[in-house]
Amino acid sequence: MQVYRDWAAVPEAGRGATVALGNFDGVHLGHAAVLRAAHAARPDRPLAVLTFEPHPREFFRPQDPPFRLTLAAERAACLAALGVSVLYELPFDSAFSHLTAEQFVTDVLHGGLGAANLACGADFAFGHRRGGDILLLAAQAEALGIGLTIVPPVSDVQGPISSTRIRRLLQDGYPERAAALLGRPYAIRGEVMHGDARGRTIGFPTANIFLKQHLEPARGVYAVTARLPEGAEVKGVANIGLRPTVGGAESRLEAHLFDFAGDLYGAELSVALRGFLREEKKFESFDALKAQIMADADQARAMLDALPAPTA
Q1: For the segment 82-130, what is each residue's pLDDT rounded down to a tens digit?
Q2: How crowded is residue 96: how many other Cβ atoms within 10 Å of its Cβ?
Q3: CATH value at residue 18
Q4: Which residues are part of the catalytic machinery?
């Protein structure tokens, strides 16, 4: 997938695509529908996504708790898996935020990207102070000779599928329900950092990933699968939280991978949450914690072994 970050310097080879518009946080089933619509409208053109980094909410409300379902690398990987060949990942800064809705269409979409077709959800808003809506987009696109497809929400019995719903499910401890809306297990992707090495002393070494701008799911223990840098998938058990028994101060993901002894420090790891086992708690002693970790590992193995085999 080709990635462009400067809308004013896209080469001719990166222009003329059919472009899906949005933040695409999580890349869920609703987003996949927008991508299918973009491709169906112009199957003769490359399939592209225009999105922003950082997320506009991070720019305007930096004091908010982290909320991202997918950071840039994971989002790009998910989009590529859905057939996107061009990603316009535009820096969202003060100058960009002050573009009017009309400038966004004429300068960025038409002039910069040379978009042949656009696709977006019915609630797509854009431009300074979100001054543009799909009515304005439709009028301007028609005037500029750009096709436009408005995609209705994808819904289930609970209502429209959205990033907000998925965040709530993860915070409530239901990763399997979130997976149903995502179309895949929810994964946290990040660099493996050095921890305090306590797990290694009791035979449970862990790969530590700091959540940073990721949404913090429900604190507790999960059955997980981890995608290693070379592509292999390994089962494991992970804790997300502050580790109150050892006096942790910053929330992190600590994953113990079953039957794995390699060195992952500095590598990028994607850890998928497959099932919630229990809430995080403080134990009276390190021995009590060790006993619980062993029980958690057995429960995680049983849960993961019972999952259906992936289909080709």
Answers
A1: 999 999 999 999 999 999 999 999 999 999 999 999 999 999 999 999 9
A2: 17
A3: 3.40.50.620
A4: 254
